[in-house]
Specification:
Length: about 200
């Protein structure tokens, strides 16, 4: 199995011609550290943009943003995922590796076929733990995400995200609880199989 680091080698991202910039960075921490995390980012000019609660893997996912851009009502985003459930994949990460960066998400050009990007990356050795996940909001804007498998059980990973506009021209600018729960289904299953030596 290729590590995440190896997957960034020559012939990787640059070959797709469609990854534009970092969309967001998400951190994980202990439940009781939420207030301190938010205060730190507020001191840097960020404010809370959206808060999503997941059911299958009970957790709170908070997006903090700063600035504005032509496409979104923010220019920079960072996230925090926390859980009161001691068995959650979030707390498994924190137990093993401490609080910190869980994943980095790259923004995919909305004019690009996300499925094509996914297949091209797979063809050059990227190891994904999910298919392309898609969610459409009430305004018909769409969120498309694909998640690269961690190199170590419950370890950090990479995301590719595409935010597509609805008929009103506004792009999907937040997150969806169903996509997040599906991510954690795959993340927990892949990590357990990796730890059991069922994935090479």
């Amino acid at each position: 199995m290729q590590s995440t680091a190896a997957q960034h080698g020559e012939g990787g991202l640059q070959d797709t011609g469609s990854v534009r910039h970092i969309d967001h960075v998400t951190y994980v921490a202990a439940w009781e550290n939420e207030k301190g995390f938010i205060e730190t980012w507020e001191a840097l000019g960020f404010h809370e943009h959206v808060r999503v609660f997941t059911d299958r893997h009970p957790a709170t996912h908070i997006a903090l943003v700063a600035g504005t851009s032509p496409e979104y009502p923010w220019a920079t985003m960072t996230g925090l995922s926390i859980s009161e459930d001691p068995e959650s994949p979030i707390n498994e990460f924190v137990r093993r590796y401490g609080a910190g960066t869980q994943h980095v998400a790259y923004n995919v050009d909305p004019t690009t076929d996300m499925e094509e990007v996914y297949q091209r990356l797979k063809s050059i050795g990227w190891n994904f733990m999910t298919p392309v996940l898609t969610f459409e909001d009430k305004n018909k804007a769409m969120l498309r995400q694909a998640f690269v498998a961690p190199a170590i059980p419950f370890g950090p990973f990479v995301e590719f995200v595409q935010r597509l506009p609805g008929p009103d021209g506004k792009a999907f600018d937040g997150f969806d609880m169903m996509n997040i729960d599906e991510l954690y289904d795959h993340y927990a299953d892949y990590s357990r199989r990796l730890e059991a030596g069922k994935i090479k």
